[in-house]
Amino acid sequence: MPRPKSENGMTRRDFVWQAACAAVGAVGMASTVWDLRMINAAVAQTATPPTDYKALVCLFLYGGNDGNNMIVPTDSSYSVYQAARSNLALPQDKLLPIQQKNGDGRTFGLHPVMPEVQGLFNAGKVAAVCNVGTLLAPITRAQYFAGGSAVPPQLFSHSNQQIQWQTSVPDKTVRTGWGGRCADLLHSVYNAQSRLSSMSISLGGANTWEVGNSVFPYNVGQWGLQGLSAGGEQLQAIRDLIALYHSGNAYESHAARVGKSAMDNYNALSAAIDSATLTTQFPDNPAGRQLYFIAKIIKQRALLGQTRQIFFVSAEGYDTHFDQMRVQGVYLSQLSPAMKAFYDATVEMGVEQNVTAFTASDFGRTLPMNGGLGSDHGWGGHHLVMGGSVKGGDFYGTYPTLSVNGPDDTGQGRWIPTIAVDEYSSTLAKWFGVSDSNLRYVFPNLPRFARQDIGFMNMS
Amino acid sequence: MAHHRLPAVVATVGLLSFLVGVARADVNPVLARAVSRRSHGGTNYDITLPLSGASGIECRRTGGNIAVALFFDQPITGGAAEVTAGQGFVAGAPSVTGSVMTLALGNVANAQEITLTISKVTSAAGGVLASTSFNIRLIEGDTNASGSVTAADVAQVKSQAGSSLSGFNFRQDVNCSGAVTAADVGLVKLRVGSSVAGGSTANTAPTISAIGDVSTETGTAKVSFNIGDSESSLDALALKATSDNPLLLPPGTSFAFSGTGASRTLTITSAVNQTGTAKVTVTVGDGLTTASRSFAVAVLATPTLYVASMLPPVGVQSQGWGLGWLRLDGDETGANVTVQTSNLTGLATELQLQTIDGALVDLKKLPVQADGSYRWEFPSDSVASIVAAIKSNGVLLQAATPKNPGEINGFLIAATGSSTFTPPPELAPVTSGPASQNEAARFLTQATFGPTLEEIANVQAVGYAQWLNKQFDPVATPPSLIYPVVYRRCTTSSADDDRLDVELSVEAWWKNAITGPDQLRQRVATALSEILVVSAREDALTLQAGGFATYYDLLVNDAFANFRALLKDVTLHPIMGQYLNMRGNMKAKAPNYNAPNENYAREILQLFSIGLVQLNPDGTLKLDAQGNPAPTYDQNVIQGFAQVFTGWDTDPEPVLIPTSQPSGMTRVINSYYNKPMVVNPSLHSTTSKLLLNGIVIPANETMDAAAASAELDRALDVIFNHPNVGPFICRQLIQRLICSNPSPAYVYRVASVFNNDGGGVRGNMQAVIKAILLDREARDLSWTNTPGYGHLREPIVRLANVIRAFHPISASGLFKVMETDAELLQSPLRAPNVFNFFDPSYMPPGVLTSIGVAGPEFQITSESSVFSGINLFRDGIYNSFKGKDVKCDLSYEINIASKPATGTNDLVEELNLLLMSGQMTQAMKNRVSASVNSIPASEVEARVKDAIFLISTSPQCAAQR
User: Which of B115, B201, B715, B917 could disulfide-link to B644, CB 3.0 to 4.6 Å?
Assistant: First the structure.
């Protein structure tokens, strides 16, 4: 099969290959030689791609979202919850009931500020995944207390746990995220006609999740694409200096080439965003603004020549040590309508089957209230997955027993995860198009776990 | 006393005389050989004159004096000679040098035989040759020495007319003009018919030994052979080589003989880019007769070498590593691949070669050759794509084990090397200069964090050498350290951003980079921080702010010390100990702890000193006789060093840091990381330890602290003295300061100084730094026109260049710049891992790959970072640099730009000097000036900022050359 050629005669795969060699370093990452090598070995095994469209959207709830108050039991165990949480307990009658299609009889409600997500759940467009967290290998409570079994380093530390969630390799200093590694595998194969150098776009700033070895995130701020702060004649002068390299020195001409590529990327993406229109209204909050731009970029996917896209959204403020009832309410009340608007926009564009959004967060939080009307850093937490291909309206995994020193607890109401980040993420990566044989490259620790598919996605 | 000793002295002298006399006195000198010698246009050629039998024939013109050289068997002191028959006489007294007597025959007539009689030849030892004589025939034109001049002689001379003169045809240059010409032909024709009887010629042909066929892949080959001759001096014999394939082996440039006496060597050099076979004939001649031998020379296309350093990919649980190399046949139809793996979790079941387009071949399924390499014949339908992949450094070599399908891998990267190393010609460093402001600025761009007008003037005033000496002098220019800054901040302030955090070290780095008078020291220390890497990004180090600062200060202090001292200080610094797991590393302890941690052992060898493969003194690969690279060590060596690096941990006596707390209280922080690690001998391995080059530290069951320390020193000595260290470390230092692709000769010159500073000292960093900066390749401007010369400025250096150039001021006095990971993809001391921000061999695709040069700094350049970097520079120039503490005072530049008429021009020239060492092209000046002039002249500050911003963010400025 002949390779598609781009205007400059270089095939897209050539370009990607060169980009792979460029393996640009980024925040939290720099390619080591061996990182880079690995991925190309993996690429080599990728089969001929289909031409369908898929996008993966990571909603990272920075600070550690308190899942205990996002999804709350409304059955007989509510009283256990209420007792343990004290002033953090949400009133039972304010919880928004959600119906499980295949429930075990237990009932739950969502945080009162999340009616939009409630609607999506009950419509089967959102699934809940219970007690997900970073793990080196499955571990029982007995093993945890016996010691000697490996647990991720620096549990309960924000920066470490954020990175471990994003890399899905807690036990190694890894500078690439699992989203970036998916992009390494898929970008050159699916986005042969791409007008951007990357399939990974961050609306939420620098992150490790999207950093690949060969594909590198392109940053778009929540207020839109960040161009150069220079304008007018000065901007034209920058362009001219990039366009006219003079001395014949190779370092100079290559620097000019990268500069031109940066200009081209910016121009292509900004033109695409500017010309995209949507009727769906998004809430004017950080998550809403970020998802709005993502929706616009998805709308222009054909113009951008991309059939696989990865997006990163950052939602901050979830580190609720103080005044949690108010603070978490503020942020979840931003998130819920933003998610709904985004889902509606995918319906408007007819790609609701093709776009999956999921939450991720540093960790869950402690069940007991602390002295500041808040909760402290925990471990496992609950997460939401949204989209037309999600087997929604159901719970996946096991909701923990809400009891300090109970069967799921490490001692202070911090849940030992029963689903590893690796399992949660690989389910998404599989849906996104990473072949079974390539999953081990994206999730090197996956073989330690029983499942590579938790079951919440329609894989067709 | 004197009386007492005198007889003994006399006796000794007497004994010596006696011994010499016994040895020589009864052996009289013997005449061994005689030649008739004439100068042919300045070059002497000898005709051998037999001492018995048929007499020798001198066929050259008889006019003027003919020199005769007589060779005796021992040194002589004098003698007499006369013509005792025939016409002629010996002019003057013979001269004597060693065992050779030379005399001049005068007034010798043509076509006659004379007798030369030599008498009273005394040897240095006292022997005497009473008399001996021999005959010489003088027959002008008898070039074939037949005794008469015939048509055959005429034909022989004609055949040589126009040929250059050699030992083979000098007899045909009858008039001794230096060339065989028509004049010689005419002279011989004139003499046809003359004849002197004296028997047939006595000459016997020289001999030459058989020469075997040779083949070469490098374009050069050497063959050795022996020559002989019964009469002539072997050194007087002529040699020539000819080939039947002048395209492959052109005459004149392909053959060079060396050696003396009987043993000779022919070096064959083929024409560039030619392959094929040739029959080469070597001929030896004594002027009259010749002997020849022929052999075949096959010049094979040079195989190109590609080397892979194999490591576990991300996430793979393995301590394995390996080295592989592929030798692409010169004709590009196949390759030999050798793979050496170590420490895998199991046997390698597959050795895959892969490209982005898929698997190419499993080496395990290929035939193994005698040298252990796999022979890979490319499938005919994919030769082109395979060759293209190999040549683009795009083939991955991957080893699979039962446990790990891709346990280790590495790309095969083109490498140059040779099995025989020839030092490049000497090239003395510059001794004077700078010759101009621009050259001074260029020097400071390489040696410091950027020129300032003051420093340019200083370098011009004192010259390079004195400037360097002052920088080296710790009294005149004391080291600027960051620990005191960090300490002061956290002990005197309780502000949140003054908390004891490793970030303080990063910020303090900027203070010294921007304002430190010890600029050279700071620049070299930063270069070292990118070789001997620890990183503030490491979680385990973030709380060790004090210790982290002392690690960088170690590099600052040792930047001008000896590399051996640097290596030890780095090894024992607890921050490095923590970073690479030497801190707390213990000897094996049954049953659960089988072996010490190998991390530091591996990295000190691979990254900090010698690398994976043996190097020539110029940094190219040292190949074995078969053209294969040679590993520097194997897994057993790593294990040996890992045993050495056991028992070391932080000093239990803490360093106290009283830090101010937000509460107003002072909290004393105990730092164990501020001073070198100490050894606990009970945790130090007692086994024997294999080091490099087969050196072994023997087992020692009675280990104590002194013995454990001695083992560490021994191990570091062994590393330090490995011949790789010079080229390995010097090449990287050159890359950081001068250019990404130093020529092998440049590396050689600097590495030679590393090996010996001229005073016999190895590892003298001052001498190395001086050699780097004063080398012709660093200084001569002619190099700057080479397309692949120079490097991309590192982002932090580029930023420091701008800040330093324009009178920086700091609100806090601390010259703080916050970390720039997000904007520049680089912050000082925050490399992502031990492999630094970039790989020294990284070659970005595009123009650099096409001309085959590395561009490491491009590894941290992306489309996003181009924009974020430009914006960061703009914010700094227009407002303040990141962290809002540092800004530039542009009043000087504003003053320049304010001048009517010439303001813009003067401003651009000023910035050209400070930011581009005067290398800005006219087209760029025009474009920048146009932008500046588009701003109203009244807004002069805006004009200045516009110019600084445009120039400092341009690709032209990014490339430092």
Answer: B715
User: d(Cα B372, Cα B376) in Å, to the nearest integer?
Assistant: 13
pTM greater than the 0.80 cutoff: no
Length of chain B: 961
- Cβ <8 Å between A44 and B356: yes
Is B961 part of the contact surface with chain A (CB cutoff 8 Å)? yes
Strand residues in B748-847 grouped as ranges (E) = 791-792, 808-810
Which ranges of chain A have pLDDT less than 70?
Answer: 1-51, 159, 173-175, 245-247
Beta-carbon separation of B844 and A230 below 8 A: no
| φ, ψ dihedrals at B561, nearest 5° | -95, -160
**CA-CA distance, A120 to A335, in Å (whole number)?**
13
CB pairs under 8 A between A and B: 269
Per-residue pLDDT tens digits for A42-61: 444 444 555 689 999 999 99
Q: How many other C-beta atoms are found inside a 10 Å radius of the C-beta of residue B342? A: 19
Residue matched to tokens 């045909």: B172
At position B880, the amino acid (one-letter code) is S
Q: Do B875 and A229 touch (CB under 8 A)?
A: yes
- Measured CA to CA, the distance from residue B336 to residue B334 in angstroms comes to 7
Give the per-residue pLDDT at B448: 98
- Within 8 A of A185 by CB-CB distance, chain B residues are none
Q: What are the distances in angstroms from CA B593 to CA A65, A402, A457, B587, B597? A: 40, 39, 44, 8, 10
- Strand pairing report for A381-386 and A126-133: antiparallel
Residue B839: phi, psi to the nearest 5? -90, 130
For chain B, the 3-state helix, strand and coil shares in percent, each to the nearest 5, are: 35, 25, 40
Whether B342 contacts B400, CB under 8 Å: no
C-alpha distance from A322 to closest chain B C-alpha (Å): 19
Q: B158 burial class (0-12, 13-18, 19+ CB within 10 angstroms)? A: middle
- Residue B581, sorted as left (phi over 0), alpha (psi -120 to 50) or beta, turns out to be left
- Burial of B285-309, coded b for 16+ CB within 10 Å and e otherwise, reads bbbbbbbebebebbbbbbbbbbbbb
Using CB atoms, pick whichever of A21, A29, A154 lies closest to residue B844.
Answer: A21
Instruction: Name the amino acid, one letter, at B78.
Output: G
Q: What are phi and psi of A406, to 5 degrees?
A: -80, -175
Spatial separation of the C-alpha atoms in residues A242 and A254, rounded to whole Å: 10
Q: Which residues are CB-contacts of B193 (< 8 A; sequence separation ≥ 6)?
A: B148, B149
DSSP for B75-101, please give it: -EEEEEEEEEESS-EEEEEEEEETTEE
Residue B9 to residue B17: CA distance in whole angstroms: 13
**Cα–Cα nearest to B144, from B168, B113, B161, B125:** B168
For B650, residues 6+ apart whose C-beta sits below 8 A from its C-beta are B574, B577, B583, B672, B673, B677, B678
Peptide bond preceding B434 in cis form (omega within 30 of 0): yes
- The β-bridge partners of B589 are B593
For B86-167, strand residue ranges (E) read: 89-97, 100-106, 112-123, 128-138
Neighbours of B461 (CB within 10 A): 10
Q: Which residues of B touch A19 (CB under 8 A)?
A: 845
Instruction: Provide the ipTM.
Output: 0.70
Cβ-contact B181, B161 below 8 angstroms: yes
B356:A22 CB<8 A: no
Buried b (16+ CB within 10 A) or exposed e, B738-765: bbbbbbbbbbbbbbbbbbebeeeebbbb
B688 interfaces chain A, CB cutoff of 8 Å:
no
pLDDT for B18-54, tens place per residue? 344 344 445 889 998 899 999 998 889 999 888 888 8
Residues of A in contact with B539 (CB under 8 A): 153-154, 157, 159-160
Rounded Cα distance between B455 and B31, Å, is 75
